[in-house]
Specification:
The structure is a homodimer. Chain A has one domain: Tetracycline Repressor, domain 2 (Orthogonal Bundle), CATH 1.10.357. Helices cover about 75% and strands about 0% of the residues of chain A. Chain A contains eleven helices and no strands. Chains A and B meet through α2, α9, α10 and α11 of A and α2, α9, α10 and α11 of B. Chain B binds a DNA duplex (18 and 18 nucleotides) through α2 and α4.
Chain lengths: ~210, ~210
DNA sequence: GTCTATAGACCGATAGAC
DNA sequence: GTCTATCGGTCTATAGAC
């Protein structure tokens, strides 16, 4: 991925570029399927069909289904890191957190946010072994953790909640099924849905 | 289930009682596994092993894995209906909603709340075809819907949110992964976890 | 003795892996 | 394109209740 974003890499052969491009297409397809049906229900045949390549070719890129999914989720985590560094640092910390939550919700409604694996899935171990994913996760957690503590210090965020509880809540809202429920009802636009869920997340269900 | 609780049913043979008791054990085991790993990852061999019976015996009780899971989830829905009718009606509607959320969270921490199936799972169709489940779901939704509108009318609940959004949020919190995250951190007791998540749910992350 | 439910072997399809 | 493991589902002989 760094190969496509950093400019001074002219030494890539055509083959290598094709390889990377294909890998990119695979990852995009995997994230869509992961968001749609989850890891267990996703088959590698589906992935191959979606990308339009032979199943065997997948195994030239990834040693296993777990690794495939872990790489795809590491990519999402990388996008999150990129988003965070782009957030306007002059904004108050609460607004930075809100912007982040809004972004993750948009990602989910766009079908690009993988649903998180159940507690004991084989995916979990693959994720834990994926350094890209774990590094991204740590960077995201550290950044959000700082913002959370700053927002608690300036009085905008509930200071009685442990920061880790806030952090986990933000992670969970990125995969909140409420978005899908409301979308399935067909009564609201994506923006309306996001604003409603953001409101319940930050302001709560009770009247203020 | 009604057979063991209602007194005037002496016509049940021991065989039938055994049958019902075993069915009960099966359902309990299924709900545990469903909560633990989800429908796709759960195998019927595991269920049989957990209950301590042969797999074929399962199929004397339930025609398919989907039906098995649907029956188990219908049981949970039935428990929810029972809980709702037992909620103190003299409490204000907001407190009734809070008590309900607290109860569902306790259920999840106890490992008795099945994780909800992904959007297109085969379980979904089985659930839609299960009248017990659908009846319970409708009863629960109607009851909660009334409480929600009452709580909005008396000013305790945010009246700007569509009632259906509140309803979906309460359903989603019953399966909120934040509970599992916090439990996994090992730093908080179950009661502390529930109170924290309840607080974020009803009061929001922002300071009041 | 009959009849039902059980247990464990068994089958076919499918999905991961190569 | 093939191999193999696994999983949902079935078959049959047997044990036990009546």
């Amino acid at each position: 991925m760094s190969a496509v974003s950093t400019a001074p890499s002219p030494k890539l052969s055509f083959r290598q570029q094709m390889h990377l491009a294909r890998e990119d297409a695979i990852i995009v397809a995997v994230n869509r399927l992961l968001a749609d049906k989850g890891f267990d229900a996703m088959t590698v045949d589906e992935v191959a069909a979606e990308v339009g390549i032979a199943k065997a070719s997948l195994y030239k890129h990834f040693p296993s289904k777990e690794d495939l999914a872990a790489t795809a989720m590491a990519r999402v985590m990388q996008r999150a890191v990129s988003f965070l560094v782009g957030v306007d640092p002059t904004q108050p910390p609460l607004e930075r957190l809100r912007a982040t939550a809004r972004w993750t919700m948009g990602l989910q409604l766009a079908g690009e946010m993988p649903s998180l694996p159940s507690e004991n899935s084989s995916l979990r171990t693959a994720l834990a072994a994926n350094t890209d994913y774990m590094d991204g996760l740590m960077t995201v957690s550290d950044t959000l953790g700082e913002w959370i503590e700053a927002a608690q210090a300036d009085g905008s965020l509930d200071a009685q909640l442990p920061p880790v509880a806030v952090l986990y809540t933000l992670y969970a809202r990125a995969c909140d099924p409420v978005l899908g429920f409301l979308k399935g009802s067909g009564q609201y636009s994506d923006d309306e849905i996001i604003e409603m869920v953001l409101r319940t997340c930050f302001n709560g269900l009770c009247r203020r």
